[in-house]
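Lab notes, practical 5.
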Amino acid sequence: MIVDFKILPEDSRIWIYQSSRDFYQSEIKIIEDKTSLFLNNWKAHGNDLQAAFLIKDKRFLIIAVNEKFNPIGGCSIDYSLQLVNDISGTINVDLIDRLTVNYRSESEIKSINLRDLKNKIKNRTFSTETVIFNTTVKTKKELLSDFELKISSSWLSKFI
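Output from the prediction step:
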């Protein structure tokens, strides 16, 4: 069952899927429709899941589940990946590409390939103060506190 993202507890589990560009308004509508339909029917071992989603900065699809309501299983997570793959195919944007890093450049969000970013950090052509989007956060609380990090405070700091 779908609920408002705001009411989910902070320890709710999340998954973040990112685009290498902003979603068009028509794509946002498709994402909202497909995700709402999926979450309203999403179950784990026959039990309803309390779930929500958020489209953040026109670039990130965030899906959340309150595991205190009902725990989620591996099969249910696999079904959510089918949803994301379906959305990716429909809007022709790879939302599961883990080799892309999104970052803030003044008021814009831009993307860079992970290999290129590592090289730019090592060569000091990319600022360690640049804010990246940490798609590895696992809970709503981490999303609120650690989603946007300076490179120097992220896992990429080892390349400084």
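Observations recorded by the TA: The chain has two domains: 5-91, 100-159. The mean pLDDT is 94.
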